[in-house]
Amino acid sequence: MEKISELIKRIDDDDKKYIEHLIEADQMDLLNHEGLNEKNILDIIKQIKEFEEIYPDGILKYVQRAKKLLKKSKNKMSAYANYAVEQPDNLIKIKFHWKDLPLPIRQIDKMSDHLSWSGLLTNSCDKPLNRYTSLVSSCNEENFDLDTTTLATSSSFLSEGGNTPVSTSSSDEFACVNSYQQVLTKTDELNNVIGDMKEEADLRGKAPQENQENQENQKNQKNQENQENQEIQENRENREYRENQENRENREYQESNCNYSSSTVSVIDEFIHYEEVGLQYIDKVCFILLAGGLGERLNHKDIKLKLMTNLVSERTYIEYYCNYLKTFQNFIKKNKDKEIDIPFVIMLSDDTYESTVRFLHRNNYFSLKKEQIHFLKQKKVLCFKDNKANLHFTYENDTFHFSKKPHGHGDIHSLIEKHVQLDYLIQMGYKYLYFFQDTNALAMKVLFVCLGVSIEKQLHMNFLAISRKPGEEIGTICKLTSLGKSMNVVNIEYNIFESILNCTSEREILDTDGCSLYPGNTSAILFEITRYNEILKKTNGVVPEYINPKYTDSSREHFIHPTRLESMMQDFAFLYFLNGDEEKKNKVGVTELNRFLCFSTVKNNSLHAKKKIKNNIHPECMYSAESDLYYSNCAFIALACMYNQKNLRLEKMEMKMFNGVQYFMPPKVLIEPQFAFTLTHLIKKIKGNITIRNNSTLWIKSDAIITNLFLDGALIIENLNQEDSTVPIILDNNLYVKNRGYEIVTLHAKSAEGQSDNASIRGYKLVKREALVISL
């Protein structure tokens, strides 16, 4: 201490308090370090000043809080140990029973075909259409026949070997081939030339040659007639076979539907009711994206926002979100006759700030305006090296450097309080804030259901939740009660929730599906802006903190990595119940939906995902996120078909393994918001029976009306006419598409070399072989 006492004498009076705070906080490992001197102690004071700019309570309170929490963590004590756990209040469940949807998942690797598809193709190699192995046919509602072939106007084929008009970043190139009409025109010209040449040769020919040719022609004609008769008979037999198969499938489908259609339709009615209520407020929502993390855990070398949501469109997550906001703005302009720039707030960190801003600028903010995007940067806090809350530091080149890590996404509230003018947004008529995470693409699909619930139930805070399985590493939404005091709806992290149950000797209650009665938090939350702003001003946006060290062993003495105090965005819910009598005014609720409709995030690399699968827990990896995006779109189409009393036919989805992760891969169905961003809209766009075979790709990029569709391959529907994008593409009443499509190909060790991160972390790439493009 003599050394410290001497150093303090040489420090300015204004700075002495920082050293005194370190002494009071028992930071003797630092203060007794042999390298401490008059020069580097000033560097230490400078770092503490920088820390206190982002943590106004100061370093002393920071360390004191850490000591209390570390003691509880070591002893496995919970702050809520004396609380009783109940289901949360204001819980609205809008859920479809898994078995009620025609979305079968097969648990084996190989699937047998139930239909003979060879009879659906024309065998004559003389017809120029066959070289594309793609057919567009007119058919009746129940059966797909090839008696009359119509051509899809303004359509084209995409095949391997050229440039893709879909994305300039595609690594698998394919060419645009002329449309059916262009092919037929060239064929007619060629036939005319051949006819003229034949006529000229006949005039120059000799009589013996004419006789010989006539005999050969008669013989060929007879053979051709026999062959045509045989083909007619084969086609008739194939058609009868298909009719029998289709009729049998229809009967089976209708028999299975009769048991659940009424209950399912009633849930759909409830779903679209809340959507319609929410859509009325589409121009009154601001968006808050939390994107402070890198993709290092995923073996991705860049920000997570640059991960691709899927390999068909190759849209990154940030482009995906911007596209939704742009579509909302266009919808508001068309339906409410007003132009707005929806406020979009993005919270970043030191790790992600520069890369995110640069990426958005380079891509012209993905059609949004620069002025409507507001960047907030989260700073880092000091780390601890042990249970005594000693600060972790390194000593190098006669300088001390404190270790730092992000304080958690709970900082978003204090950053909003400091840097976002909520009073101005309220004055402009905005009513709600929608918070969502960086890699949950499905959160956008159910926004208006949650918004409708918030409006109708007058909720100040509304959690978007899913059914969770015990042991799943997501937050638990519940009600906590102790000594007559209740916190009606709060989020408790999974490890703390388990400790509460252990203290009360209770077991989690499960429903018939094996899911907990306590829903799981998706980190997508709606706040009513006025009440949120009032609480923000009272609390400065400071939410309860926690600590979660990773211990080396069961003794819980040593950390694997330095730890720090953290905070979570969702813990703002506690602030609604910590204001005395005012808590009675506050109303927090939960909207629980099916996971496959609203939640699939990217947290794990393939190694950790494989372990999750073994424990029957969702893998939350890049492969599963892409698969779930396709599956969610299939589910929404299924609901639209069921509501319209039409059929969606899908084959049993195969389980596939990539990078050691076994998961299912549905047909690659992408529904862009320009086509439909609510189930309400989708019901109006899907008007017939839909059949999609496994490995098919359906990418709907613009407004369209689809009646009956059979797809075995790849189909892209788009509107390239930006000036007249309000006119929908109306497809033929019965559309049959068959081509080589897009194929997912496994990446092995050698083939993975030179591939992008987006392919290698999935364990597969997409080979774009052939597609039919229908466009305006």
UniProtKB/TrEMBL annotation:
Basic and acidic residues: bias regions: 233-254
Catalyzed chemical reaction(s): a monosaccharide 1-phosphate + UTP + H(+) = a UDP-monosaccharide + diphosphate
Signal sequence, start to end: none
Gene Ontology process terms (BP): UDP-N-acetylglucosamine biosynthetic process
EC main group: transferase
One GO MF term: UDP-N-acetylglucosamine diphosphorylase activity
Chain segments annotated as coiled-coil in the UniProt record: none
Cofactor requirements of the protein: Mn(2+); Mg(2+)
Disordered, as annotated region: 201-256
Keywords: Nucleotidyltransferase, Transferase
UniProt EC number: 2.7.7.64
Low complexity bias (residue ranges): 209-232
Pfam families listed in its UniProt record: UDPGP
Annotated transmembrane regions: none
Family to which this protein belongs: Belongs to the USP family.
PANTHER family noted in UniProt: UDP- GLUCOSE PYROPHOSPHORYLASE (PTHR11952), UDP-SUGAR PYROPHOSPHORYLASE (PTHR11952:SF9)
Protein name, entry field: UTP-monosaccharide-1-phosphate uridylyltransferase
Organism: Plasmodium ovale wallikeri
